[in-house]
Amino acid sequence: MLKKILCFVTLISIFSCSKNSDNIPAENLQGKWYLSHIFTYRQEEGKSPLQATMNGWPEDNIIIFNEDGTCKFQKLYIDTYGFNIFGNENYSGTYQLSGNNVALQLNENGEKIFLDLTVKKISATEMELNQEKTQILSGLEKSKTAWGQETYNDAMAFANQYKTYKISNTFIKMQ
Fold first, then answer.
1. Could you give the C-alpha distances from 83 to 11, 22, 64, in angstroms and in order?
2. Strand locations in the chain, DSSP E?
3. CA gap 159, 130 in Å, rounded
4. 3-state secondary structure of 137
5. pLDDT at residue number 146
6. pTM value?
7. How does DSSP classify residue 151?
8. Which of 96, 129, 147, 162 has its CB surrounded by the most CB atoms within 10 Å?
């Protein structure tokens, strides 16, 4: 009898944890964040991985997630590979949070740019947003008209040459 009770409690706790552990409350995401760290990892088949880290960006490279589902990017450059700090672009758009996935739809010159991200970790002061290769390719496909055919083709060729392609962005909360 004790074994049955323990088994039942274990099953309930496993299902309870797995179901809720990936749900990020929207209020945790909301606020003003600055980009402090970008890490990329790429590896071609049979070759050593390429890793790059960029740190110490000024606090004016900002993303703002508003309560109403809108978002703003200030002095962040978004290219076909995700966030990039080398630019002075401002974007606005919307976001949707589902579990631990964030779907961004941003406007650029009347065209839509899509980014699919995963909230890897989030606290009151720090957030890590990641992109895996499948998310990068999906965002490129959905943003095809915004980038133009030539840029789209170049970006797809670049991304597809790697068997593994990951981007990790760390943000620090400002308010």
1. 40, 23, 14
2. 31-43, 50-55, 62-65, 70-74, 77-79, 82-84, 90-98, 101-108, 111-122, 126-132, 164-173
3. 15
4. helix
5. 77
6. 0.76
7. H
8. 129
Does residue 22 carry a pLDDT above 60? yes
Q: How far is CA 81 from CA 35, 39, 77, in A?
A: 16, 12, 10
Report the candidate in 65, 89, 86 with the shortest Cα–Cα distance to residue 75: 89
Residue 57 pLDDT exceeds 90: no
For residues 61 and 76, the answer to whether their CB atoms sit within 8 Å is yes
In this prediction, residues 147-169 reach a mean pLDDT of 85
pLDDT for the residue numbered 81: 55
In our burial notation (b when 16+ CB lie closer than 10 A, e otherwise), range 5-16 reads eeeeeeeeeeee
Residue 4 has pLDDT above 90, yes or no: no
Class for the domain spanning 28-173: mainly beta
Per-domain residue ranges for the chain?
28-173
Question: Which structure tokens are listed for 108?
Answer: 């650029």
